[in-house]
Amino acid sequence: MNGVYRKAATIIVILLFVSCIPQLSPKVLHFVNLETKESASYTMVILTISEPVQYKVTELENPPCILISFPDRKVFSSEEDVVIVNKGPIKRIKNEYYQSEGEGRRQLELVIVELVQDLPYKISHSGSSIIIRIENPKESELLDIEEKEKIGGDSQAKARDPLADSGYLIGPGDILNIEVWGHPDVSRDVAVDYRGEIKLPPVKRMSVMAFTTYQLEEALTKSLSRYLIDPVVFVLVKEFNSQRIIALGEITTGMYTLKRKTSLVEFLGQIGGPTANANVSKIKLIKKDGEISIHDLNELIGDPKKSDGVLVSAGDTVFVPPLEMSRVSVLGEVKSPKMIIVKGKLALVEAVTEAGGFTDNAVQSSVIVLRGELGAMKGYRVDMSRIFKKGDIGLNIELEAGDIIYVPRSFIADLERFLRDITLPLTWYFWYLK
């Protein structure tokens, strides 16, 4: 009998262990469905996830938007980018994704519900569904909106539009100067942390992500009213550090800060325009999520309406290619970072030599060669120390037009993680080319 009991106990232990296996790794969540339901007084947006999940709500004022994000869990979706267009008070619903993880494995970054105007709404959840209930605008209000769109909006509406003058959206890294009139003990400079939050005693912590200065003044006035009588708040962005964009190629290369809503044509004009050697018919706009679009500058200039629809935003890279793409870039810990015109054959050692050789901080054993189209590059590590110390000339690879050689300051142990973490393959380009 004892043997029977031991066998039974063993089976029970095994079954308990097997039942616990699914709990050892988190389930993969999927964006299951998005639908709308309309009534006479309101419209509902229903987002359904494969299981209940924590979400974060952020509001934008212009255009009026409700942003739903999932900071604590990865949610994957195979839905199209623009899901629903023109439904009651909803102008459109758009999904924003992180860089693709393969077919059917796109991680959802944001669900953007863009409204025809600023309208009251409530958000609740039921099971694994997130429900946004938006009040329908009155018919007279809709007619007023349509009329303003036809005539371009009246001057009073433009004066209220934060993007007409200071539409800069506050983000991590920005330094804000907050002045509360008559209260020097509260007034101070504050930094926006990596979560998009600030600390301003007596307000303990406050999210300011994607606020304009005007919106933040209103929010702080409301929060401080709990402690002060009729506070008057002024907010100024002292250091613009979050809304940055990179310009590469046949243009004034560098990292620039966006301070308002800016089109691609406006941005190129602000930084001096393309060089005489630029191929302006194939300008690449690489978005933060890796999406690439190609634009003809002359076509955009000739069609102002189309130009206004091509906007640059934080995290973007603008690449203006040369008429002749037979070039190799050498960046990082070399004495003279530069772009080299390839005439015939060019090997790795020759390129580094032409860039002045390594600096004292260079890690020669972890030189990275980036190859391929912008936004879809592959990286190869070359231990150049073996070329010089052991004469391993097989590592002195022949370079191809468009290659980028990056000499790091520290050893890059995980190449895939290095490429993934920088998001856009050339985010660091400016710092080493300047």
From TrEMBL:
A biological-process GO annotation: monoatomic ion transport
Pfam families the record matches: Poly_export (PF02563), SLBB (PF10531), SLBB_2 (PF22461)
Stretches assigned to the Polysaccharide export protein N-terminal domain: 165-237
Chief localization: membrane
One of the record's GO cellular component terms: cell outer membrane
An example Gene Ontology molecular-function term: porin activity
Domain Soluble ligand binding span(s) in chain numbering: 254-291
Keywords, sorted A to Z: Cell outer membrane, Ion transport, Lipoprotein, Membrane, Palmitate, Polysaccharide transport, Porin, Signal, Sugar transport, Transmembrane, Transmembrane beta strand, Transport
Any coiled-coil regions, as ranges: none
All copies of domain SLBB, residue ranges: 327-407
InterPro entries documented for this protein: Poly_export, Poly_export_N, SLBB_dom, Soluble_ligand-bd
Topology with respect to the bilayer: Multi-pass membrane protein
Localization, UniProt: Cell outer membrane
Lipoprotein in keyword set: yes
Family: Belongs to the BexD/CtrA/VexA family.
Protein name as annotated: Soluble ligand binding domain-containing protein
